[in-house]
Design a protein that fits this description.
Layout (H helix, E strand, L loop, with lengths): L2 E6 L2 E6 L6 H9 L9 H20 L5 H16 L17 H18 L12 H5 L5 H38 L4 E6 L2 E7 H23 L4 E2 L16 H13 L5 E2 L3 H6 L2 H28 L28 H15 L2 H7 L1
Parallel strand pairs: 5-6
Antiparallel strand pairs: 1-2, 3-4
Length: about 350
């Protein structure tokens, strides 16, 4: 492998000659090999969208030349589309503030822009990662903004539709059980009569309420600290930058309710919005755990248990008991949700 030499504040770094990332990313790759987890495509597209909005705002203010702006925007569109995904693959466990994530994007876009302008990668002859791609920004405001956008996209595009499909399935099962009497239970003991329609409608309703709550909680992530830069004071940004960048960000992301906080210093210090959204996700997760447990109990048997419903038989349930079938799907879902809820919630909230 051949290398090019780049210099930074710490000295000289050897970077593979053909890659688009630079010295900062190379150091991060060497320093942070802590897990197999990488940021999602949603996060990559979100950070690219933030950079694109910043470039449009800076160009509108006349701070970036039209020629450089065109090259940067072309590179950013390619970055968002996934052309450089194999080079945007840092470990999610890294330096505080996500600075390696921020600089990884800056370097890729700068090198591609320079290439489009006729310069070699690593020279930064026309476009610099910090001075141009990162203009008016800091990791302290771009990364939290990208996290919010990634989660808003994921919630609207994947989680919400999937939950609606589940809710509709439960409603359909409720109709199938209309008029079919069964026993209701309290404390796992026989209580009073109810119908299967009532039971499955109750499951659907609890998910509807938790989904509504999660949607309400997601509104907290529309408030952004973008333009606050290093500590939220807005140092290095012109007064009109915040209004311009959020205008372009709404257009680029399709999220019309985004707005800049009146107190970007507080926004730089606080991650409360992620905690609020997390509470919405926990409500959904708790419902899933309860429903999966109920389905397992209702399916229990088939000869000596409750056996009021029959879950689909998807695989043999035992290595030594022929004919035994387990509630494998609901067990897998319950396990997955519990892991997400109790162990890896940080990944769900931060990087979708």
């Amino acid at each position: 492998m051949t290398y090019r030499r780049e210099k930074d504040a710490l000295g000289e770094v050897q970077v593979p000659k053909d890659v688009y990332y630079g010295s900062f990313t190379k150091r991060a790759l060497d320093n942070f090999n802590l897990s197999t987890q990488r940021a999602s495509d949603y996060f990559r597209k979100a950070i690219g969208s933030v950079k694109k909005s910043a470039c449009l705002a800076n160009t509108e203010m006349g701070l970036i030349s039209k020629e450089n702006s065109k090259a940067i925007l072309t590179a950013l569109d390619e970055f968002i589309e996934g052309r450089f995904s194999n080079e945007y693959n840092l470990d999610i466990f890294q330096a505080g503030a996500g600075t390696p994530f921020n600089m990884n994007c800056n370097e890729i876009v700068a090198n591609r822009a320079n290439e489009l302008l006729g310069a070699e990668k690593g020279t930064y002859k026309y476009v610099h990662p910090n001075n141009h791609v990162n203009m008016g920004q800091s990791s302290n405001d771009t990364i939290p903004t990208a996290i919010r956008i990634a989660n808003l996209w994921y919630f609207e595009r994947e989680l919400k539709p999937a939950l609606m499909q589940l809710i509709n399935s439960l409603r359909s099962k409720a109709k199938d059980g209309a008029g079919v009497l069964k026993v209701g239970r309290t404390h796992m003991q026989d209580a009073v009569p109810m119908t299967f329609e009532q039971e499955f409608n109750a499951m659907a309703r609890m998910l509807e309420k938790s989904l509504d709550f999660a949607a309400y909680c997601s509104k907290s992530m529309h408030e952004l600290g973008l333009g606050g830069t290093a500590i939220g004071s807005g140092i290095t940004t012109p007064p009109e930058y915040k209004d311009l960048v959020v205008k372009h960000l709404r257009e680029v992301t399709g999220l019309e309710d985004l707005y800049i906080s009146e107190d970007t210093i507080e926004m730089t210090q606080s991650c409360d919005a992620l905690g609020i959204f997390s509470s919405g996700l926990r409500a959904i997760a708790n419902d899933w755990i309860k429903i999966c447990g109920d389905l397992k109990i209702l399916n229990m048997g088939p000869l000596t248990g409750v056996s009021e419903i029959e879950l689909p038989e998807v695989e043999p349930g035992s290595s030594i008991m022929p004919g035994k079938v387990n509630p494998s799907v609901v067990e897998a879902v319950r396990l997955l949700v519990m892991i997400m809820l109790y162990s890896w919630e940080c990944k769900v909230v931060s990087f979708s």
